[in-house]
Design a protein that fits this description.
single chain; alpha+beta; Aminopeptidase; 2 domains; eight-stranded mixed beta sheet; three-stranded antiparallel beta sheet; 7 helices; 13 strands; about 25% helix; about 30% strand; globular
Length: about 250
């Protein structure tokens, strides 16, 4: 992990009342934009986590290679998609998943270099999103078995991305997290509902160790909230990491 060199303390109290535990588990996730701004203003030592694509406190305990992590990964095999392969959906054959290829960098840049999309993503928009950044994102997406990142194809055209992240709950290796985005030309066409429904079903079918899938949605992203609730994701309440986001959960039936 790339590091920002600042001093740090074990726990920090933010003005909003939240507490940042700088020695927490790495699997607790990346810092929210508010937490990141606070840490930088207070000279907290930070590291960039290329797996989770965000900043974490430099003092985090790396539990991704712990026995818990190995147990989760072994129980969830096989993965959804082998690198280099294409997997079409039998029910909706117009949709397919495959790993991102190096040659997709220009397509990824064209789709993702859009501030409207980043409004609903937990990461900060790297304006502008350069071709080099797109290539780096593709490399990161294929660099770890901590997650499964897939380019989404519709009638052979890339339209967005789906991601299933493993080991998101240190107390329960059976919990995974889904996230997704679509290029803006594909909004409002029912595609979001299609791909989330198909990906959720496939994630459960191909990963027998998963008992539930969670999702985090920005409170103002009414369209995504509507999609998830329609597909059986139940609202659990505000996300513990950031109350500006809502956490939902779909359990294996």
């Amino acid at each position: 992990m790339q590091k920002e060199r600042h001093s740090s303390s074990a726990k920090l109290q933010m003005p909003c009342g939240g507490v940042i535990d700088t020695s927490r588990l790495r699997s607790a996730g990346v810092l929210t934009p508010t937490e990141l701004e606070f840490c930088r203003a207070n000279h907290v030592a930070l590291s960039y986590d290329p797996v989770q694509i965000g900043w974490v406190p430099a003092m985090v305990v790396d539990d991704f290679d712990s026995p818990l992590g190995h147990r989760a990964r072994s129980s969830q095999a096989p993965r959804i998609l082998a690198k280099g392969g294409v997997k079409h959906n039998a029910i909706a054959p117009e949709y397919a998943l495959r790993a991102w290829h190096e040659s997709d960098a220009a397509t990824l840049q064209a789709l993702l270099d859009d501030p409207e999309i980043w409004t609903w993503l937990p990461e900060t928009y790297p304006a502008p999103l350069t071709l080099g950044t797109a290539a780096a994102l593709i490399e990161i997406s294929n660099a770890s078995n901590h997650h499964q990142v897939c380019a989404v194809l519709r009638n052979d055209d890339i339209i967005g991305q789906l991601r299933l992240e493993y080991d998101v709950d240190p107390q329960d290796p059976g919990v995974a997290e889904i996230s997704y985005w679509l290029g803006r030309p594909f909004w409002g066409k029912g595609i979001g509902s299609d791909i989330v429904r198909l990906f959720t079903a496939r994630s459960f079918a191909d990963n027998p160790g998963i008992s539930s899938i969670v999702a985090r949605v920005h409170n103002d992203n009414a369209a995504s909230l509507r999609i998830l609730k329609k597909l059986g994701y139940a609202v659990q309440g505000p996300d513990p990491k950031d109350p500006a986001w809502t956490r939902l959960c779909c359990r294996r039936s």
